[in-house]
Amino acid sequence: MNARRPMLVLTFLLVMLVGSLATSTRNAQAESGYLAYMDRMTERLDSVWDPARGYYTPGRAGTDTIFNANMLVVHSVAALEGHEGPARRDGRARALVNALLHAPPYVRHAVPHGADSQLHEPGWVNSMDHSRADQHVMIDAEVVDGLTYAWRARRQLGLGDAQADRMAAVIHRVANGRFWRWPAIRLNQINWYARLYAADATVGGGGGLLRHDLALQIHRFAAGANRGAFGNLGPGLHFHYIPHRGLASPLNVDSAEYASIVASFTRFYTQARRAGMAAPSLSHKRLLGQWLTRVLAGYWTHSGYLNWDSGLGFNRWHQAKKLGLSQQGLLGIAMTPQLLPHRRSAAYAKWMFDRGLEFYERQAERARGIAPGLFFGVWVVPRRLPAARLGAARMAGNAARAQAAGLSRRRAVEPPTLYAYDPDIGRLAVTTPTYNTAIIAVSGGAFPYGGIELARLFDGRQEVAANIGGRAPSAFGLLVRDGAGHRLLSTQTPRTRVSRRVTPLRLTRAPAGRNATASSAARRAYAGAFRDLRATGAVSRGGLHARTTHRFTARFIETRWSLGRRGGGRRLDVDVLFPSWGRDVQITAVMGDGRQVDVGWERLPLRDVDYLWIRGRRAGYVVVPRGMRNGITARLMGTHRQSSNPHPGPTLALQLARHASVRRAALTARLAPVHDASEAAATPARLRE
Q1: Backbone phi, then psi, for 623, in 5-degree steps?
Q2: Is 485 inside a domain boundary?
Q3: Which end of the chain is more exposed for a tag (fewer CB within 10 A), N or C?
Q4: What is the pTM of this model?
């Protein structure tokens, strides 16, 4: 035993050393991840640097000032971290500081330009070479963010005292102007003000704005959450973009992007508390924590992409540049566990933030450069190359902000299954590691999709499994037509107005929200983790009554469609639709004996089908019908390009009745995303459990 002891000790030490080296390697990889991301994004944008002008030229279109501000964040953080790589461009950073401190874009005397320009002085315009250009709170805030990081890295960047003092003086002058001081506010967007106040404190302007003005901004936002019949937030705490316009405005249906942007005030909350800002009242802190939970569960997915519906419709939906701004809400939540009801949610936010960086880079790689200005082929309001470049710069800037905030040293935790429910608009967002989806019954006329069905279906990596927001026939749901093919009822049809008297979708099983209605007060979120979530909604039209009931679990969705009819002898066609996405879609019926049969335009009896596989290029899903199948047939239905579903494949239609005087019809099915044949073969057995 004694002879073996030295060998055992040596072995133990070697194991510990190897483990320590492995841990160090993992930590080093984690800590360098954001910096490496910054390097790769910088290389993708390197071609638009103009050494003669001393700034980047992404292509104007109102993007060049904020593009340069974000690249200044990247170069400054690279220097601050002592990084050596493509993101470290000290000479460029010095040139950008000089460019951003002079006119244009910095203006001491603003010139009126455009009806939407937010005229103020001093401040910045959205052009690097024309003083007569638009102004906006966002422009000042992003420029000040870039200058603040440059000020922090002034020694590493080789900036002189005179230039550092000028940065501090300009930031102080702007932040203390009437445009920014309390009680100034742009709608309810307190995030921009938090950024300016924090910048002023950082560069030596004192903490007065953080202590005083930010406390008042936060108080006003929380106090205005449920002001009378209308406020900043709706039942379930969804976001009202223009609260003073009330329920009638389509802009107030919801806004995944602007809610997340406003939530980014949390980036500066800890700094404000350290500067002496009083904590919000207990009731306001509780409300803010509930709202941030709602932001995380209702607007984000496990893949790091927005669960995206917007009252601003195609003017914001799936914009790459808005993804970068929205992501700063995740960044702030990850940095501020003290505001959250469950501190573990901060680690969930970091998980989503990191996955979002990965999502963007995958799109960039597919585009062989930078990701497009609009994701998933959305095209109604085009976003050209300058906007795409701004999207890339913001994602690079966010990696830099995360690095500077120390997030590389914080643990990311994969979130559990999450949901968020808003009873007045009938919105139910669901995200799991396997899939994400949403139902939104009320569109307010802001977008063309919606109803009591799944509005879209993505897999866990944000690949489109079925659709992104279509309408029948490129949508999930029940479709009823007469013998001539005229549509009589579709369950994927949105309501155009919010009504306090109508709750279009109700939860029947959920951790919270089962008794919520459209008239519920905006005091708490119906959001969080779940294991078995159920919801139901109904549509009636012309004597037809349809009900759809959904069940969500971590791995699958189960839906039951039922149709009832009062009177009338007209013959009907009744179909349940399952959409697909993209070119080269193949829809296969796997029979009980294992044979695979391609589903075509001819009707295929469902009685002998075990399951159906809708297979796209990158993702798809399987459908397992449950219960009685006699008399039901499967076939393909043709589709066409839609504004909210630009790349539809053929739709699988399970026909419950054909030219029949049907009084009742029903179908139940389970579905789950899959990626390949082995997953498709293994999944149906799990869905039958």
Answers
A1: -120, 125
A2: yes
A3: N
A4: 0.94
